[in-house]
Amino acid sequence: MRYAVSLGLMALFLYWAFRDIDAEALWAAMQQASPMWLGIIVLTTLVTIVLRAWRWLVLMRPFTTSVTIWEASQALALCYGANFFLPRSGEALRVVSLKWRHSMSMGSTAATVVVERIIDMVWLTLFVGISVLFLRTRIEVAFPWLGPWVGSAVLVALAACVAVLTLLTLVSIFRDRALEVVRRMMRPLPPRISSTVVDALGKFAHGLEALHTPSAYVEILVSSVLLNAGYILLIYEGFIAFGFHTDYNLGAMEALVIMAISSLGIVAPVPGGTGPYHFLFSQSLLLLFAVPAAAALACATTVHALANLLYLGLSGPALLLLRRRRRRE
Q1: Which of 24, 126, 308, 325 is deepest in the core (most CB within 10 A)?
Q2: Mean pLDDT value of segment 109-118
Q3: Would 198 be classed as within a structural domain?
Q4: 178 part of a folded domain
């Protein structure tokens, strides 16, 4: 049922994105893209995978040093490939892949994934906030359904993310006390159930240790800055590929705005962000920066397709390598 709803949302947003778009005009606009810059987009996408793998390794370092950046990158490729077919399934798959490779605690690894996603939400909220400050009037006119409350919503979302990170940090620092509280709460339950729950929470808390490791803060910050700079660069490279940087004077700030708004589509529970990403990306270019509808959708479709084709191309070999290793063992 949930998957049917996901597919329904994808179809609805694709309809909204492609309705009233002339197919010939769309194809003509896509043909205008520079092959060289499309290749550069692919290379930049590869770099973002490595940067995310680096940040993930930093989060895992307190409880394992056996995972290489190559293995983490392979796990991320599996994650992205799986998310294209089944939303959110990739997060579980990358945890399982490291379990198969190194017999790592799934609870501890899952904790790092949770922390990483919260960090992503903090950055996304910041970028949406910057976009609102930069183009508040235009955004309210272009997207009236956002209403005047969008600024307050950004602040609430940011505060919520920071609060959750703070809570997780406190749990990590006071892990033994937190587990003792859980044990007391679980006493009415059968010992087998209570011990299983406490053990799982203990492993999860162990995976949070990077949050109170000062030496990790710099690496997490630097890798996050570079990663998000890479995502903004991907959009700007898309502008250059289609000539938007000269025809419509779109620069890095405009790329940041499009990245922030279109990323809301990636967060949506649909396969690979397909549909919401196209709609938000193209409509933002059209309504905020007066890029013609066909050209805007051509850029959105091309950037999205290049990333997902790369993810699928990498996830296949990564899965084969993982299966081969499992058979050897």
Answers
A1: 308
A2: 89
A3: no
A4: no
